[in-house]
Automatic annotation (TrEMBL):
<keyword id="KW-0963">Cytoplasm</keyword>
<dbReference type="GO" id="GO:0006487">
    <property type="term" value="P:protein N-linked glycosylation"/>
</dbReference>
<dbReference type="GO" id="GO:0005829">
    <property type="term" value="C:cytosol"/>
</dbReference>
<feature type="active site" description="For Fru-6P isomerization activity">
    <location>
        <position position="364"/>
    </location>
</feature>
<dbReference type="GO" id="GO:0004360">
    <property type="term" value="F:glutamine-fructose-6-phosphate transaminase (isomerizing) activity"/>
</dbReference>
<dbReference type="GO" id="GO:0006047">
    <property type="term" value="P:UDP-N-acetylglucosamine metabolic process"/>
</dbReference>
<dbReference type="GO" id="GO:0046349">
    <property type="term" value="P:amino sugar biosynthetic process"/>
</dbReference>
<comment type="subunit">
    <text>Homodimer.</text>
</comment>
<keyword id="KW-0808">Transferase</keyword>
<keyword id="KW-0315">Glutamine amidotransferase</keyword>
<dbReference type="GO" id="GO:0006002">
    <property type="term" value="P:fructose 6-phosphate metabolic process"/>
</dbReference>
<dbReference type="GO" id="GO:0097367">
    <property type="term" value="F:carbohydrate derivative binding"/>
</dbReference>
<protein>
    <recommendedName>
        <fullName>Glutamine--fructose-6-phosphate aminotransferase [isomerizing]</fullName>
        <ecNumber>2.6.1.16</ecNumber>
    </recommendedName>
</protein>
<feature type="domain" description="SIS">
    <location>
        <begin position="214"/>
        <end position="359"/>
    </location>
</feature>
<keyword id="KW-0032">Aminotransferase</keyword>
<comment type="function">
    <text>Catalyzes the first step in hexosamine metabolism, converting fructose-6P into glucosamine-6P using glutamine as a nitrogen source.</text>
</comment>
<keyword id="KW-0677">Repeat</keyword>
Amino acid sequence: EKGGWPSFMAKEIDEDPEAVANTLRGRIVEGRVALPDLDALGDDFFNDIHRIIIVACGTAAYSAQVGAYAMEKWARVPVQVELAHEFRYRDPVLDSRTLIVSMSQSGETMDTLMAVRYAMSRGAKTLSICNTQGATIPRESDAVVYTHAGPEVAVASTKAFLAQITALYLLGIYTATVRGTMTDERREELLTEFQTIPEKVRTVLGVRERIHELANWMADTRSVLYLGRNVGYPIALEGALKLKEIAYIHAEGFAAGELKHGPIALIEPGQPVFVIVPSPRHDDTLHPKIVSNIQEIRARGARVLAICEVGDAAVLPYADEVIAVPPTEPFFEPLLAVVPLQIFAIELATAKGLDVDQPRNLAKSVTVE
Ligand code: M6R
């Protein structure tokens, strides 16, 4: 039930912190990741695989992309993400040392189910990450790791996205441990920080008032662009998808490095652009690059809406709006940065008087191919 919230989507965004906390619960034991659900794959499985392909659609594909950056970095195994409907019909090379991970909130998405069935028929092992107990995809897969976001009713996925990233990160740290590619010290550092994320997400929810004003002010906007690099790139894609889905506004996410290869031609005076800025503290490569991207678009008149770490002085002179998030590990930044984008979409849709829970032409669960 909606309780006191105006919509399920508003309620579900407010449940972002619990979605992370509940997906972590019981899975960090004595400084290690405990995922007994994976025993079904056999003891040496994660040492033997030579490739992971994550299949998913929509928001689940974006959470998968965030998770893939982390998994490949930590576990030193190639991880790629593919839209399930593309994967299914391109005759991919598969074998028993390929792990197919499917990502699905509902566990009933037909495109994803067909990709899983196809992979199994070609001899690959399948692992489902799913938010719905006993759904078709986890039932048919070799193993399952449940996300515990709780039921998600609004068509636009929000809290499940955070839970999906959480589950993939747990899987990544688990796999890195089994494969011996992460030191104990690094693992403990990551897991300690991971447990602070629900509280940090809660802090970010406090930006609602400001975003409410911003969205009211932008109610007539025709187009919004989103830029990010590395794990910020899928966050840009997700921010754009949320806005398209519920506010019916043209929105596009780009890898910031692509700007000069085309999209910068779209920038004209007044064009709003969200930029997901990585923390300057950890990073001497991505941060200066994104700051120069900001300068490039600002010079062409873009209205820069920066999501950055609190106190990021390099961004301040060039941003029209700064939405500050608490400091964290670079890989956890997406879990914070996505929240203002979810709020922006719902606030803008609400300012336009739209039904945010039931956007036109969309269904919560897409059970046809
Ligand atoms: O249930 P699933 O996670 O498999 O659904 C996948 C997509 O259909 C879903 O994420 C869709 O993109 C949402 N409407 C996004 O908000």
